[in-house]
């Protein structure tokens, strides 16, 4: 990455985004590096110099490593930890039936034979299963991380050990980050990619900016994140989108499974691990009744909580009412709340003013997609701050008022299910299989099927993704008779619903 | 209605549809006239002559009635029963907060001032609240029934007593049916309508066919039913749609409230009223996990049933799995099922072959939108039938096998929640308020906003409908701050979600 | 019944009890005769003369009837309606697997051979199944009703048609009531009973008073009701109990099944049939969190209600908290309540003062065991009453305040699940099988096993009752290995729990 | 403890029990020392020498320590860690409202003034709150651990820092164990105790054996555990019980709260922490439907599991049926089970034979009160073992079949909620408050109220314990009116239920 890039405003903005991305809602678990640093140093306040120091420079990674086969076209932290990563990948495989079925079913015809995929995602055991699935389906791949903190080093090592060109480690600097993307693109290595799988849009952006001539061979982009999709639609509007793109983020397999069930699985687990609190009879306020809020409410009620909901959208509010949750404004119940969970997708849903009203011992955590739902600026601005913060466990702070009142703040307001819980591989399998099918679709589509626009995956493929996960539940689908097909006006193999169907 | 019409094939087809409509899924309760006849005559098989005899000819209605004010432009069964109908309407008003709020909020500016609405809907206490709401909003109306059996005569009388031109009674003949539509249109009375509110598309069809010249003053059509919307889309494709139309059927306020919660409310109630069965521990099979199936499953589990689901669509099947329902093929569990509930929207989901496998005492009922889900043809074809049918209560038959096995068939396979349960006014209020707003929107829209096409109601209006129902739950919405609006890129007053949002 | 008895104070008190009993909590459904009268006469206010007139004098019953076999030793309303009653009994048999299994399993050895049972219970299809079960087990029986209103006349006729000596009809006078008991005892007919099955204690009381010499042959009393058990314990204390007695009322099969699940089954059904209200999102207050309250809360939450609980007992209150219900004092939430359900077992849980605070349209009903939970005295005292009462349906009154506010009062505060819902036969089967086993135990027990005291059924028999009902659920018990029996110190055949086990 | 004791058979048996106790069901969390050892040594198989080596001899503890006040009459691991323990205690205090309320309410009259309590319990933050509560109520105490592994050293240090005579550390030898009990009794220190609070019966047994003459001043024993209560009843039968004893184990506050809700809170948490599995749609088998099983089933269903139950007791089985769980024999569903949870209280509920049928990846864990529910003998007998065991995480083993099938075994079959989850302080507070009240009752009872027998706490005190925990839920009790008291025949202040009431 040249100085030119650094000097340029847009690039600066990009870097801001990259930094911001460390907190972005994703489908994988990451451990906050800052917290790790603090813990190991016994120092809760990272110094500025710590912030700027890269843990690994790219050069040291590049220079030394070689896997057991002598392969060197990768950059990971410690190739020797490959076996630990392999075990993690194997465990993940057991709970990712969709991808494993895809391997088995599609392997014979290798639908990605000839595909050269550059990928930029979180590097976790779960994405490793995706990457290796793509390879089994015929693809060649080069890969990098979409987040400077989220890489599981052992997993990256395991991939490198399989002679996969991966460039990623936990704790990259911004320079490292862009260097890794560049290496993944592989132009200098003479590689000519024809597919992009992106999560966040950084790879797409960088490719567009520095390798736009290579777009001639690109068949399409698959993008998973809110942010990345947003950037694609912008390119579309400005007519700078050079190839077709698939929006995986808004597919039903993501919104109605990943968003809903991942949160249902995580909310109890995350709060328990952090606080060991009893849930029975506790008064919980869930701010926001979208898919995330719905998942949280369902789990909390299942454990005997008394659940309040806050909402801005009357339709979602009415849904909450019909399910028997009490829809309130925060200030009506804040004094009696035992825990507050933000899931609004908004900013400053909880402010200092709210905190002042909370009762002693109340728990505060964020399940929403950004880290701005709880305004924790007071934690940082020491000049005006009358509150003390005491770290009581990893990811758990007590915020202490002058009168001794303590609030339990989880993960400094960052996304709890990523910081403090685990992400069930099964749910990730659904999204990952959607990504794989999006690649297959774009790679094999006839020339004119897709224009330079942003598409949702055809419904039939969403249905296929779902069907890959049914055997894990011993679930057996019913097949339509010819007569029923005719009556319903649909094909025996689907799609079974109109595009606007809400599920 | 002239003989010409009768002689004409298309008209015959229309009549078939009209007859078919008596079984169509609707938002209101109706009582099967055939059953009433049989009961009163003590004869389970209506004779052909009974079928052909109109209970009321239009002439007798027309000739004699006059309300207390001397008004005569209506045709109902017994104007004297108006007070009973008025009480029913008053009771419904208490559970229709959306419409009542609309009256209060919009009354001052009378957004339908100048509207001349022809309506064709079921005539029930709930639609009466809608009709009178439209009038309060400034509209003039003429009304008829969309179904020959579903009119609540007392309610029709109550409307007539208010000098509303209504033409409807329970047990119309086909001739009566079209005569009433014609009277509602009111061309012969010199009326010039400018809005159409239809449920099923018959009014629209008749108007299009016989009064197409009047379309010049029509500002739009609001249609609520699956069938009617289907017909509108067909007209759209054949470019015969002469005015804009609003599709209320696929609005979120219908699919995510009416379909889901109406069924959750009705399934227990309907089966209890018919069979007095205990639900705890019963093994129930719900065929179909769409909104209707979801509502049924939720209620059944809430009462302690053990619930199986059958599905053709892998996405819905995966949802059922994630909620902890066992997804099976019917034949896997049919021998042990205590009750089978069809909610597939398909045809012949339950066949004679299935029935043969059911255990003694099993209950069979249909919650789906057509009457064809359970193939009950064997009930009618006496020549080949080895089964006996014994009516044990209204809407409850025992089907008896030669070996003595008895199956409990509810409502002859017709839609149970309409036959045997009640329809909660509250849920209807949501849909009815959507209809009212659709009229207001079309009536007041600037000239070019809507073309001759089929539209969904703008999301903001869906949200408004929802907001009208929140006070009934003491629910209080949260308001976005300016900062949050900016962050989210949305307006403080909504709409709050993109159009593709699934809720 | 002689005049002496009538003149005597104690007998007068007995009659008061008999009258009071018409409202007592029982396990069977009854239909309020007054309501029937009112309906048929179209007159909502029964006259004093109606109240005093017996619908049937005993003489007319006695004189004329004869069944198809020429048998005459019975008194029922219309022997000709026997076939209708038989069908009701057959339907009940299908949902009473415990009794039916008892017939099959115990029939070979006829454990009640030689037993001569006098029974005094409600006369319903369900008790008919019990009575005929006892006969199949070898018993001879004579039977009468424990309640002047609750007899299902067709069922009584069906029993008489089987040549069972039954003396019962709906609408007995007090004189009829005692006459029927006397006839059931059968001393004048030369019968010498040896077992008593009572529900309420009237038969026991009358027998003790007038036939105490016959106690020498009585082997024991089985009593099912709260009141009857209370009277037995009193006799025990005053040492006037002449034989052993079994308290079925406090058996686990009654308290943990009948009380809990019967109410869970009835609460939604009863309110729906009366009001057609939607439950989703409604704010319900359940007064009392005993077994009845627990059942109500569970069902209400299952339908999407928001449930508040009031309690006097901190242990039950803590249970409600742990289940996520909000425990409040009535006055805290009464203004926002949509429905109030009393299940406290107490008196005047709801007073006029509470009613004044309720909002327009609120629903008020009683699920508790007495009719005094809601103080409805204002309904009767017209002199001081500022409230109007309007009957809107059977069992549903609107109570109207001077300002127009209306409260919906169900069944005049009587027990809703008996008035307005049905009682699932399955649950009754559990209690009835317990009664049958109690008879078998007392009849066959060795001489010294039971003294003149009140006993609970041995746990092993409770377990047997439960086991009889498992096949209906396809439930399969696991059997202990010898090693496990030794480890647990229990017998392979049970009993499996200590007596104090709470379930 | 002298060699004489060691040589003696009974003492050997005692030591066996002491060792066994390390696995006994308790109300507190402990961490398996063996696992800790293994982890720190990186050696999964503890050697025999490790097993026999005491981590701390009593002498080193005794000799050196002194708290800040110069107090030395205690023996803990590291007095310097007192501040860490104090923080844990403070956190626990926030979730133990019952004990804290007891401090506030009863402090003024100090009902334990003059009490000299010897205690033998797990030493955790939660018991520390109990101990310090007793002191606030006026008691003097000396304390030791009832389990050689479960002591939280920091907590013990915190107590010692408060000059409490505590003798306990994690990893005591058997000799240490008895030495600590002896020191707690304090006879050599000239102390004369008058109350015993025991958990498991070892202190009672030791006291009875070596200090029986001191019984003359003992006013009573409070015992919490199944085992200890069992031993007391045995003493009662052999007439060797020298003082009154309170059985806390069977109080309603223990069985209906601790057993039920503690397991509901722990089951999801424990399995998640060990396996990160997704629960939605998983097929879970819960073996046993007592309070523990009920809690597990409720939580699992709340997370979307499909739940099967196995039972030996038909009454519990019928309860499971009525709640909608499918009651099966293990072999019917074992091939499809995703997880099996034992909660039977029995032995060898899961055998090798069952394990052979499980599918790949199935999870196996124990929530029951002993460690024998899952027969894991094959893990130990290497000679005959064809299975491999691979430790994948703390408390998680993969058991590997020759064909590669892997079963996930949690905590080697020990009680999962103690090994892998946390114990919510709130639930412990209920039991601990019961213990405190039992001490108060026995200490203050008039001379003749209690004989040398085993008693349950008076119901009124159970109710008081419950009432102490209601404010934490903002729960407000309703008070009976005088009229209601009279009607119900109960006192305004309770007790509110008969002794046999089941809750």
TrEMBL record, chains A, B, C, D:
Which keywords does the record carry? Cytoplasm, Hydrolase, NAD, One-carbon metabolism
Q: What protein family is recorded?
A: Belongs to the adenosylhomocysteinase family.
For bias kind Polar residues, which ranges apply? Answer: 43-66
Extract the Gene3D superfamilies matched here. Adenosylhomocysteinase-like, NAD(P)-binding Rossmann-like Domain
Q: What cofactors does the UniProt entry give for this protein?
A: NAD(+)
The GO terms this record gives for MF are: adenosylhomocysteinase activity
Q: Where is this region: Disordered?
A: 1-22, 39-66
Q: Does the keyword Hydrolase apply?
A: yes
- S-adenosyl-L-homocysteine hydrolase NAD binding domain residues: 259-423
Q: Which InterPro entries match?
A: Adenosylhomocyst_ase-like_sf (IPR042172), Adenosylhomocysteinase-like (IPR000043), Ado_hCys_hydrolase_NAD-bd (IPR015878), NAD(P)-bd_dom_sf (IPR036291), S-Ado-L-homoCys_hydrolase_CS (IPR020082)
Give Gene Ontology CC terms: cytosol
The keyword Hydrolase appears for this protein? yes
Protein name per UniProt: Adenosylhomocysteinase
Gene Ontology BP terms: one-carbon metabolic process; S-adenosylmethionine cycle
Q: How is the cofactor bound?
A: Binds 1 NAD(+) per subunit.
Q: Would you say which domain of life the source belongs to? A: Eukaryota
Instruction: Give the pathway annotation.
Output: Amino-acid biosynthesis; L-homocysteine biosynthesis; L-homocysteine from S-adenosyl-L-homocysteine: step 1/1
Give the organism, scientific name.
Adineta steineri
């Amino acid at each position: 990455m040249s100085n030119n890039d650094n000097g340029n405003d847009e690039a600066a903005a990009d870097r801001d985004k990259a930094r911001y991305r460390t907190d972005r809602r994703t489908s994988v678990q990451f451990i906050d590096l800052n917290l790790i640093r603090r813990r190991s140093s016994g120092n809760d306040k990272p110094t500025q110099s710590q912030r700027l120091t890269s843990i690994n420079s790219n050069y040291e990674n590049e220079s030394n490593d070689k896997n057991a086969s002598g392969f060197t076209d990768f950059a990971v932290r410690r190739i020797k930890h490959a076996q630990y990563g392999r075990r993690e990948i194997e465990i993940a495989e057991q709970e990712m039936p969709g991808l494993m079925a895809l391997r088995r079913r599609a392997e014979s015809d290798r639908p990605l034979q000839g595909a050269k995929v550059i990928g930029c995602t979180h590097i976790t055991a779960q994405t490793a299963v995706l990457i290796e699935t793509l390879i089994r389906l015929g693809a060649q791949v080069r890969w990098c991380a979409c987040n400077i903190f989220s890489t599981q080093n052992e997993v990256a090592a395991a991939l490198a050990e399989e002679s996969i060109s991966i460039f990623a480690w936990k704790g990259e600097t911004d320079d490292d980050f862009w260097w890794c993307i560049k290496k993944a693109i592989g132009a200098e290595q003479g590689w000519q990619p024809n597919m992009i799988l992106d999560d966040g849009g950084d790879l797409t952006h960088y490719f567009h900016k520095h390798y736009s001539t290579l777009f001639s061979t690109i068949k399409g982009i698959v993008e998973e994140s809110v942010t990345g999709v947003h950037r694609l639609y912008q390119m579309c509007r400005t007519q700078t989108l050079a190839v077709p793109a698939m929006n995986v983020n808004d597919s039903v397999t993501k919104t109605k499974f990943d968003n809903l069930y991942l949160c249902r699985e995580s909310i109890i687990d995350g709060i328990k691990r952090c606080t060991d609190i009893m849930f029975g009879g506790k008064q919980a306020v869930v701010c926001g009744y979208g898919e995330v809020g719905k998942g949280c409410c369902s789990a909390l009620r299942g454990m005997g909580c008394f659940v309040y909901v806050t909402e801005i959208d009357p339709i979602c509010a009415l849904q909450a009412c019909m399910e028997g949750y009490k829809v309130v404004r925060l200030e009506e119940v804040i004094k009696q709340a035992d825990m507050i969970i933000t899931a609004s997708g908004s900013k400053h849903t909880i402010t200092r003013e709210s905190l002042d009203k909370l009762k002693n011992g109340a728990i505060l955590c964020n399940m929403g997609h950004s880290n701005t739902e709880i305004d924790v600026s007071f934690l940082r601005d020491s000049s005006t701050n009358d509150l003390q913060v005491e770290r009581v466990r990893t990811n758990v702070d007590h915020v202490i008022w002058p009168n001794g009142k303590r609030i339990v703040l989880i993960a400094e307001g960052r996304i709890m299910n990523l910081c403090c819980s685990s992400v069930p591989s099964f749910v990730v399998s659904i999204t990952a299989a959607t990504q794989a099918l999006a690649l297959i679709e774009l790679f094999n589509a006839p020339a004119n099927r897709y224009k330079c626009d942003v598409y949702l995956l055809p419904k039939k493929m969403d249905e296929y993704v779902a069907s890959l996960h049914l055997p894990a539940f011993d679930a057996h689908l019913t097949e339509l008779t010819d007569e029923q097909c005719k009556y319903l006006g649909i094909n025996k193999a689907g799609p079974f619903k109109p595009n606007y169907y809400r599920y």
